TrEMBL record:
It comes from Rheinheimera riviphila. The keyword DNA repair does not apply. One of its GO terms (molecular function) is transcription cis-regulatory region binding. It comes from the Bacteria. This is LysR family transcriptional regulator. PANTHER family: HTH-TYPE TRANSCRIPTIONAL REGULATOR (PTHR30126), TRANSCRIPTIONAL REGULATOR-RELATED (PTHR30126:SF88). Pfam families: HTH_1, LysR_substrate. InterPro entries: LysR_HTH_N, LysR_subst-bd, WH-like_DNA-bd_sf, WH_DNA-bd_sf.
Amino acid sequence: MPYRPKSTLEQWRILQAVVDAGGYSQAADLLNKSQSSLNHAVAKLQNQLGVELLQVIGRKAFLTEAGDVMLRRSRILTQQIEDLELLAASIDMGWEPEIRIAVELVYPKEFLYQALAQFHPLSRGSRIQIIDTVITGTTEVILEGKADLVIAATGVIPRGYLGEPICVAHLIPVIGAAHALAQHKQLDLDELSQHLQIVIRDTASKPMEGPGGWLKAEQRWTVSNFYEAIEIIKSGIGFCWLPEHLVKNLIAEGVLRRLPLTQSSERLAPMSLLTPKEEKLGPGSRQLRQLILAIHGKTGSPL
């Protein structure tokens, strides 16, 4: 037999109102209902559950120990119902139930997190999915329309798509303090090519030859993200081109060292925000796009 609830949401909302208002009389004024109807609703709820939830002392209603526990759980339930109904209304208005954001790994995500913090109270229950992409994996996401918003390295944006420049990521060659090269005052690329390089895996299903940076080292280990690369090079194994914002504190602490290359001492990765399918962009995605642009000091010109 399917489960049949003994109580209703309205009964729980009435109980919450009585507690929050401090009594039946105050709650009746708040809800524009008669005091007797509230007394009846709470009494029926307690009888149906077989648990005493409220005790009336004088003119005030006080929660019992069991009532306090159940009231807290009921607030979660009623909030979930409100969120569900709001989501249904938002979908009916064209507001997306989910917003997908593809982000190139070199992008400083603290900017995105600031925008998301501002977006959260406006989100109407929309889920957010953040997809990490690398090199031609970013191109693939754009071409296949797998995300609503894409933060991409400008160099991998395919023909026919335009993005709004938002910032420039700096990648620098880094080693661990225990690496043999840590004592060198100068180093050329030919010598560097003889050492193990840690590289980040392209996220495309079929990686293509493209702007993947300096990959001349004979020995390479491939990892899925920069944090894995950092842990490896911290142990004194290999070198890696890493976003400066991820490693500047570790360099300042002496855990990592920046390689003193005689040329190409850093790579610049201009970043852009674009929408692969502008015509299908929903209101939530448009709102989030404006917030990301504003974080970067942009006015929100069309992408």
